[in-house]
Amino acid sequence: KRFQESITMAYHTFHGVETRIVRIFNTYGPRMRLNDGRVIPAFIGQALRGEDLTIFGDGLQTRSFCYITDCVEGIYRLMRSDFHEPLNLGQDRMVSINELADMVAKIAGYEIDKKHIDGPQGVRGRNSDNTQLREVLGWEPQVSLEEGLAVTYKWIEEQVIAANSNQASAAADV
Asked: pTM of this prediction?
């Protein structure tokens, strides 16, 4: 990623090409694929099936999550600006994976256990520093994690219900 940023900066500097560099942090929202390997759809899928939420490691690793409409708005604003340096785009609120699991369980409306297992944890902590984002764009992401998770959960739940309904209809037709 850093190499691509360097190449982009070089094209801007030496060839006058209009460029923008955005560093997008964990984006989520409706239309995510349930089995894409990312933590939010994985937790929602497990909650919908009534399973424990599987967490790699101790769950104390931290991340920030940016709702899709905020990501799109940030990119749009950056593209309309004349800023050519790398710019972080994400929420500056950091939560642990354990806290994220608790939020999903709360949205599901029942107590869900967390199951910690060995597996890839990634870096211990990652967060978006939005100081420059606010200075350059006069804006920052607006959708809270709780709001965005509720909408995402509902959308995924509707997709699962529709898929199950279609499977039941197909079985009845046989």
From this structure: 0.89
